[in-house]
């Protein structure tokens, strides 16, 4: 090697060391969680919907892992989000109500300030963090995202049907009143400040998406955590002009197809910025479809019931994990829960799990990277603060059953119903009589689990 | 160019002309139709089934066109197959029964000998033809496949539950009696001769597959038509040893996963023989899932009802078209019917449509090759020989409704029910009152269609 070429090599090394530290120490991976609101198990093309077109999510699924047995932590918005953000069953944080199922406009509580969100945990490792979309974990100042570990918040404090101007919301508000925006008085916040009220809900998905892309651009040189909980397809439904009458499935389809577009925008941004190979993107929904909203609600596909229910349709969700080069394409049938996103995110970022509390989430990394399996054996189905059902392996025992938003009283089963979910995903055939040892085993698990539950202040 | 190189060019040309006629005149394409029996709309991975694993069909769908709105010609075996084979609504050929819905063991009739099957039509252009699997278009000698245009037949004459040895078939025969083969006395035919009776049903899918592969190998140098109608997942269910307890979905899943394996074997053979780029492979089922068979029956996913019904679950089927290099990957939402396979096959082979009869099938080629759309506007839903419902565009009017195998009388609707299927695939919301002009238009279509129906001898 000549003297000049040696010199050039040293210069090149110094330049590389200065401007591309990633060459020498792998940058911690970015994490993006995209959450739909009230999207059903059967609402995407890749989950078998006959008429809704979701090419971006279908492609994401084809390039990543599509889960068939992914559950959320609760069957309605608030507790589901509390579980996702903290990795703890909502009952542990007071986020499982007794009379109310979610935080209402009049609720003074929220996610307790001593709870640790994914964002708060990741900040300790220098992550830039943003929540873009619907929060619904408390609207008093101390509970807002910017007080729970997020550098930036752009979105609604709660559901888009929670601030109607003219009293009671008509059942089919979303279809018959569209586009009468004046019914709704949602406030759009930026950090702790109201930016717009009433919010133009029809441009919200587009504006959220622009904010998400801006956040990615601004933070491409440092690890980031983007939590992107969409407002839709929760009613009232609104789509931007580009997506109105876009779908054969009517306004509900328009809204889902705009969400699909949004996912495509995020993935394309990551690809273009060269970040895709260092970013885990996870897509799911907060709970099942709101069936009582008729055509303004979604479809649970082959599953029973929807939002508000502890039948499968209420809590089993479409879920896709995407990370080019790290995650290999697959359909995954293992038992997974949204709580596991907390633990997995912390593990990916190299953050130790909080030692002072019960963490229910499990590390999904071996399963995601094809080196192992889901460690999850148990799934607990709560309705408000009561345990209604438990899945262990492929069996699910129902202690109490209740149709989503039925006015009938819940039915308590002294002898639990039992379904084998892999054989009978629609929960049609009770097999308790043939499997007494399975029922007994699940009841033992319930007893064990209940020992770990400590009474805390309810937040609703 | 030198004299020697000119000479070499001529030699090369002569060799090419002798051994590779395909270079100069494209060989007519091969056509393979694979038909499952009683498989439901929701039973494949790519149509959203949560636990049945169908990697070969999923891959076929990812490489080809997956249809969301593909219909069969009838809601039970015999008339559905008659429609597929002739391109004519079964009512035209006497293949729509009045009391019986399918040909029974005691039936003396069959597909009339003057009907023209795809096989008979393609033979006129030198196609090798085989029917491997279940026929069910007449078991008297003159109605067998070998008398209807097929060079070769290997399979059962009718359904696998039609020759029980001990009288009435128990409802859950398929699960509780498996593997008690002695209940069933099916005859396996090769051409016109009984090869085996009782047939070992557990090895049937494997043996059909071996026969199909052998037929492809033997005919790789000439155009061929392979009609491959599987016996399963019609009850009683049997899987070969390699697939017993293969599936989380129990025996039904085992059987479907073995079918999936079989499809993979056929496609792999075509790939290995270099035939894939000159072969259309079409996969579908004869009718919806047999829901009254409980766990031995399949799932219609988000659709209503199943086999025997004119609700969507009875007649809308999984359908995949595959032809590497010719068909581009897509999800297709257009209205298509199994009748169209007749017309499309004849067009691909360069055979003129029979001029002496009504052909209801339409040419799918423009849609398959991405140069146009489905020409189909209308779908007629018969139950036996009565017209129950009609789809035009995205609207479906029900003149009569009846749950699949219910003992209740069918319900006649003086004023038809109307559903918008793209918006409401589950047929939940009757929109007749809001769309009187659509109902009137469909009733006019019915009147027009009925003029084309000529009374013929019923075959059942």
TrEMBL record, chains A, B:
Under the heading InterPro entries, the entry gives: Alkaline_phosphatase_core_sf, Sulfatase, Sulfatase_CS, Sulfatase_N
GO MF annotation list = arylsulfatase activity; metal ion binding
Co-factor requirement: Ca(2+)
Q: Which residues form a coiled coil?
A: none
- A Pfam family name for this chain? Sulfatase
Q: Which UniProt keywords apply?
A: Calcium, Glycoprotein, Hydrolase, Metal-binding, Signal
Signal peptide start and end residues: 1-25
At the top level, the lineage of the source is Bacteria
Q: Where is the Sulfatase N-terminal domain?
A: 29-351
Protein family: Belongs to the sulfatase family.
* Name the record gives this protein: Sulfatase
């Amino acid at each position: 090697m000549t003297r000049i070429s040696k010199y050039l090599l040293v210069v090149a090394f110094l330049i590389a060391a200065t401007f591309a530290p990633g060459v020498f120490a792998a940058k911690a991976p970015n994490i993006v969680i995209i959450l739909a609101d009230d999207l059903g198990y059967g609402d995407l093309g890749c989950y078998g919907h006959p008429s809704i077109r979701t090419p971006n999510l279908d492609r994401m699924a084809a390039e990543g892992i599509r889960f068939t047995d992914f559950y959320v932590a609760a069957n309605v918005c608030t507790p589901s989000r509390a579980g996702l953000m903290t990795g703890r069953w909502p009952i542990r944080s007071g986020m499982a109500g007794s009379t109310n199922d979610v935080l209402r406009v009049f609720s003074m509580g929220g996610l307790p300030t001593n709870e640790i969100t994914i964002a708060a945990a990741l900040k300790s490792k220098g992550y830039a963090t943003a929540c873009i979309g619907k929060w619904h974990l408390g609207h008093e100042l101390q509970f807002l995202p910017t007080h729970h570990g997020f550098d930036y918040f752009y979105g609604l404090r709660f559901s888009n049907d929670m601030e109607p101007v003219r009293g009671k919301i008509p059942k089919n508000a979303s279809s018959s009143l569209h586009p009468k925006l004046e019914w709704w008085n949602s406030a759009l916040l930026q950090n702790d400040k109201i930016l717009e009220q009433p919010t133009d809900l029809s441009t919200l998905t587009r504006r959220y998406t622009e904010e998400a892309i801006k956040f990615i651009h601004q933070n491409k040189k440092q690890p980031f955590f983007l939590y992107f909980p969409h407002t839709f397809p929760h009613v009232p439904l609104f789509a931007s002009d580009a997506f109105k009458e876009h779908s054969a499935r009517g306004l509900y389809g328009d809204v889902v197809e705009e969400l699909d577009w949004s996912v495509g925008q995020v993935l394309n941004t990551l690809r273009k910025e060269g970040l895709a190979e260092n970013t885990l993107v996870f897509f799911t929904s907060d709970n099942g479809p709101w069936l009582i909203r008729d055509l303004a609600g979604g479809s649970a596909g082959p599953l029973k019931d929807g939002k508000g229910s502890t039948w499968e349709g209420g809590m089993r969700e479409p879920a896709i994990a995407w990370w080019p080069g790290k995650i290999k394409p697959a359909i995954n049938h293992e038992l997974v829960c949204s709580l596991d996103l907390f633990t997995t995110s912390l593990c990916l970022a190299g953050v130790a799990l909080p030692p002072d509390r019960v963490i229910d989430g499990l590390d999904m990394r071996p399963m995601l990277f094809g080196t192992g399996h889901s460690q999850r054996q148990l799934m607990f189905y709560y309705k408000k603060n009561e345990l209604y059902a438990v899945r262990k392996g492929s069996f699910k025992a129902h202690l109490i059953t209740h149709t989503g938003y039925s006015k009938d009283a819940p039915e308590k089963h002294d002898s639990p119903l039992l379904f084998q979910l892999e054989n009978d995903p629609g929960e049609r055939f009770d097999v308790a009589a043939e499997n007494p040892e399975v029922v007994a085993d699940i009841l033992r698990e319930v007893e064990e689990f209940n020992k770990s539950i400590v009474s805390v202040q309810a937040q609703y």
